[in-house]
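Late entry, written up from scratch paper. The run itself happened at the end of the previous shift, but nothing got recorded in the book at the time, so transcribing now.
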Amino acid sequence: MAALAILAALALAAFAWAATATAVTSIIPTVEAAAPILMLTYFPIIIISGVLGTISEPHWLSNLATYLPAQPLIDAMTQAVRHTPGAALLPARDVIVLACWAVGGLLAAVLLFRWEPHRPTRRRAARAKP
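Output as recorded:
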């Protein structure tokens, strides 16, 4: 039963991350800018959430981390692995936070994502022909 809870938490978190990342692509102007922009959004979330280890942080920052998608995934996976009889397989709060990120990311992606690449409005000057 714990394996199903782990798979459910992973699937919900994967959907939340993918939907949110697809929405973020709307602010990426070029292929070259994609990696730095995604790193600037992904790594702070991972570090604040304590994935790489605990850090001393202000209380408000650790409180904020509980509303980002990484911390609820960590908590849900931990509870599923350490499940005790009579307790819920997955914490309801973590499932709700991940579901909100998934739905919010999906809505933002539907509204903002475009298949056509964004073209800057400024045009390059035409080359002079010799």
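Residues 2-24 form the longest helix (23 residues).
(Scratch paper discarded after transcription.)
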